[in-house]
Design a protein that fits this description.
This protein has 159 residues and is an alpha+beta fold. It contains 2 helices and 8 strands, in the order H-E-E-E-E-E-E-H-E-E. It is 13% helix and 28% strand. A 5-stranded antiparallel sheet has the order 6-5-4-7-8, covered by helices on one side. The chain has a 3-stranded antiparallel sheet with strand order 2-1-3.
Length: 159
Amino acid sequence: MSDGVRTIVEKWNLTYNHSAGAVASEFFDHLQRDGRLFGRQCPNCRRVLVPPRSFCDRCFVDTDRWVPVADSGVIEMFTIVYMKFQQLPDPPYAIAYVRLDGADTAILNYVKGLDLTDQQQAVRALKPGTRVRVAFAPDDTRLGSVLDFWFEPQLKASS
């Protein structure tokens, strides 16, 4: 008999297939085929939404056109992971929300090309406002998924 509350450990391993929808599917097609990122523009407020959405979350109207966005932008928020999680890369790794030039919203992805072993130095290097560029997987390896691209810090020009 137990004096306290029991903890029951369960392990779930589920595979779930769901439709990406027409807008996300076209976004991933552009990514795989062209190695480019596109957003969708709201006809009312003119915001460019990246990742693209079928409707504007501010105006609640259907977005009406595809807009290419730049391959560089600024970090809005980030985190560095130092613990191991199933199905994710070995730590340390960083992920960041980046607002690409020409977009009005931010997209989340991995940040690569940065030494994360010194936590304080890594935090300074990833602070909000830091410019990054988008790097793409080689043409023959892209699968049409968010893992086909990542962010890398832009090197400052030497004076």
